[in-house]
Specification:
Layout lengths: L13 E5 L9 H12 L3 E4 L14 H13 L3 E6 L15 H6 L3 E4 L4 H11 L3 E3 L14 H12 L5 E3 L8 E4 L2 E10 H6 L12 E8 L3 H13 L2 H4 L2 E8 L13 H9 L6 E3 L12 E3 L2 E5 L4 E4 L6
Parallel strand pairs: 1-2, 1-3, 3-4, 4-5, 8-9, 9-10, 10-11
Antiparallel strand pairs: 5-12, 6-14, 7-11, 8-13, 13-14
Length: 314
């Protein structure tokens, strides 16, 4: 499928805000995130159902889907930002009008549970989406992380080639396997990615660079998820692998015997003869590098770089 790129963001453009998954416990975070965007010179359109709650969901499936469709239908809205992740995006997938998205390609941003929407949109339409900061989790802070902020806005507002992506400061990539590879970068949250297996929304992994991250999964659960990647031949199909941050992925029950996260990673990746990077600054962290899913990526672990060889927006 041909890659479809959204138009770049300009000051004064309208950014739509939706909650396709969960709602923050503190709704003031939505207001703070909105204020941040407005101070930068953007106009903001908040979805009709944003702020609603239905247990762990941000309103009913119908309400969340309505806001999602409404933002893509609205010609004035140039970008759609997610409030937060949590859970619930996957419940919407078989109800989405993907033709509407294809006819109205625009910037769509989020990460974590939003991975389900992003991979499905790419599979069905070819539209590049952005695994990047969210309104209530990243833009509601009193001080937005400068590293993540500069990377994010540069990608969304600039139609030039993105180029090489670097970790912040002195933070280095760890090379698990040397080599070079090139392919379209896809992935996201590991648990959400695996939840799409066996469905019409499962990504095509052949000739891609896979990037994965996760949070709050004990080592045995990361083990299970990576084993599913192995059994599904994903680790064979991809050209290269980028491991982002695995946050709080340790056994919290001190009475349980366990192996470490690093031992799990070593087990699954030590025999693979293709380039693999670890400790890439992407995931549930403040210094989160925005990843545009669907763009061509060069991975060179021998020389320690990740390069996006084209622009994400037009």
């Amino acid at each position: 499928m041909k890659t479809l790129k959204p138009k770049k963001l300009d000051k004064g453009d309208v950014i739509g805000i939706i909650s396709p998954a969960s709602s923050p416990d503190d709704l003031e975070k939505i207001e703070k995130g909105t204020n941040y965007l407005e101070k930068l010179g953007y106009r903001v359109e908040i979805g009709e159902n944003v702020g609603k709650k239905h247990g762990y969901l941000a309103g009913s499936d119908e309400e969340r889907l309505k806001d999602f469709h409404s933002m893509f239908r609205n010609k004035d809205v140039k970008a759609v930002f997610s409030v937060r992740g949590g859970y619930g995006s996957g419940r919407l997938l078989d109800k989405i009008d993907f033709n509407l998205i294809k006819k109205n390609p625009k910037i769509f941003v989020g990460y974590s549970d939003i991975t389900a929407l992003q991979l499905s949109i790419y599979k069905k339409t070819g539209l590049v989406t952005f695994a990047g900061p969210m309104v209530a989790t990243d833009f509601s802070e009193n001080t937005v992380n400068q590293f993540a902020e500069e990377n994010f806005w540069n990608i969304l507002t600039n139609s030039k080639k993105i180029g090489k992506l670097h970790n912040p400061g002195d933070s280095k990539f760890f090379v698990l396997k040397n080599g070079r590879a090139e392919g379209r970068i896809i992935g996201g949250n590991l648990a959400v990615l695996v939840s799409l297996f066996g469905t019409q929304f499962q990504p095509v992994f052949k000739d891609t660079i896979l990037i994965i991250e996760d949070i709050g999964e004990a080592p045995y659960r990361v083990d299970r998820l990576l084993n599913q990647l192995r059994l599904a031949n994903v680790l064979k199909d991809v050209k290269g692998i980028i491991l982002g941050r695995f946050v709080d992925c340790y056994e919290t029950d001190k009475t349980k015997e366990t192996i470490t996260l690093n031992e799990v990673i070593e087990h699954y990746f030590h025999k693979i003869k293709k380039p693999i990077l670890y400790n890439f600054s992407h995931g549930h962290i403040k210094e989160n590098l925005t990843i545009p899913f669907g763009l061509n990526c060069k991975l060179n672990t021998s020389r320690g770089f990740v390069e996006i060889t084209e622009s994400a927006v037009i």
